Amino acid sequence: KSDVNMSLTSTNNSLAVSFSRHVLSETYTLKVSCGNTRKSIRMNKSNQTRLNVTLNLDSWPKSCCQFVAEVIPFFPKCANDCTRHIKPQDFCSSNPPEDPTSSEVSPTLILVVLGVVPVCLVIAIMSYVCCRNKAKPPVTPSSEKPPQPPKSPPKVL
């Protein structure tokens, strides 16, 4: 029995996996997965009774909190088909994911908003001014005087 143990470091950017080794096993393969992300490490026997591996989680999705460690020993009689020791570990409850509403606003978002909002305002003002001027006919002063009605009524024959 390999009694697999897993723990997150205090900064949550690495996962420590340890397991007991068997006297007759020369090599081990450790597979750690979280969702679709997987990492495989091949290890040789050492003089220690427990083998320890630390995985850097910086390249893993930040939402990963349910890990599965699989220890595959290599014995001469069963080769790569030996009994595997699988240990699932859920770190979600001890380390809840950040609430997206309480997270900080990124500087990129601030710059985009500060750039897009003024441009939209300028376009809206220009559109309003252009449309308003087209609605009113232009008033031009005329040099001709409008025809004046006759002073006497027209004569009927």
Automatic annotation (TrEMBL):
* Region described as Disordered: 136-157
Extract the Gene3D superfamilies matched here.
Interleukin-17 receptor A/B, fibronectin-III-like domain 2
Q: Which UniProt keywords apply?
A: Membrane, Receptor, Transmembrane, Transmembrane helix
Ranges of Pro residues composition bias in the record: 138-157
Spans through the membrane: 109-131
Record's protein name: Interleukin 17 receptor A
Q: Which organism is it from?
A: Iconisemion striatum
Q: Which lineage is the organism of this entry classified under, starting from the top rank?
A: Eukaryota, Metazoa, Chordata, Craniata, Vertebrata
Q: Report whether ATP-binding shows up as a keyword of the record.
A: no
